[in-house]
Design goal:
This protein is an alpha+beta fold. It is 34% helix and 27% strand. The protein has helices at residues 3-9, 15-21, 61-74, 89-93; strands at residues 23-29, 32-38, 45-49, 54-58, 81-82.
């Protein structure tokens, strides 16, 4: 899958518009950035990354972040960091 095809799948016309419409929320390493975006598709809120992984069908940004944290926990991924307002366990404890 190429970048524009992935963007189209999420309801955006280009990769550039997908990135512009999304907010970076976490990174596992510099080559895998996770973003959150509300789509106009049945996917609702999604977390997606630059490796084309998608966690979809979330009702809110908060639900998206919780699903992403559960994804990291279930795979025992400890080498990641949250960006900006999403940084730290305290930020996630207040979600929901």
């Amino acid at each position: 899958m190429d970048k524009d095809c992935f963007a189209n799948h999420l309801g955006f016309d280009t990769w550039t518009n997908l990135v512009k419409g999304s907010q970076p929320v976490a990174a596992m390493h510099r080559n895998c950035i996770w973003y959150a975006v509300k789509t106009d598709t049945w996917y609702g809120w999604v977390a997606w990354n630059t490796n084309y992984d998608v966690l979809f069908s979330n009702a809110s940004l908060e639900a998206t972040l919780l699903k992403l944290k559960a994804y990291f926990d279930s795979r025992h991924i400890q080498q990641f960091h949250w960006f900006g307002a999403f940084a730290g366990e305290a930020a996630l404890e207040n979600v929901g």
